[in-house]
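Protein record

Derive tokens from sequence
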Amino acid sequence: MAYRGESTPKRLPKYLMESVILEILHEAKKHNRRNYLMLLILWRTGIRISELVKLEKRDFREDIIFIRLGKGKKDRTVPLDMKLNDIVGFYTDGINPNEKLFHISDRQVRNIINKYSKPKGIHAYPHIFRHSYAVHCLKNGMNLRSLQKILGHKNLNTTEIYLDIVGEDIQDDFRKVKFMDV
């Protein structure tokens, strides 16, 4: 099953398992360095598509991305792992600090995601990368409050919805447990 969250109430967002995200990234990496980088940034940071298309070289610092005027016209920082920072540095070498990283529209990003996911039978869209990032972080032990700050959620309740999705895995794990009949 590629998607999680399908059999749950509608209020729970769908997400892709890490292995599916990696398939999409692998396809993009084979064909286009820019597309790969855009999808990798979405996956490894959880930023919104509107934030991705506005990124400038100067927004990347040593270990953070500075999101200027994100949703709600608020600034925030997003942690950046060193490997992604190195890839971005290589890609942006020679680019003016105030220049956009990607001269691209939201629609074009959606088309790029479709290009690499649709042939594999995966229904993917930019925001599913954000949901997948959130679930991945929680499954790997990230504190809910830290995730709230990274995602830029004003209210912790907005971030808590991902706990319900991660709770599905408890049921999956419990089904693996075998009890002997008495």
Summary: The radius of gyration is 18 Å. The chain has a mean pLDDT of 89. The longest helix spans residues 156-175. The domain at 14-174 is CATH 1.10.443.10 (hpI Integrase; Chain A).
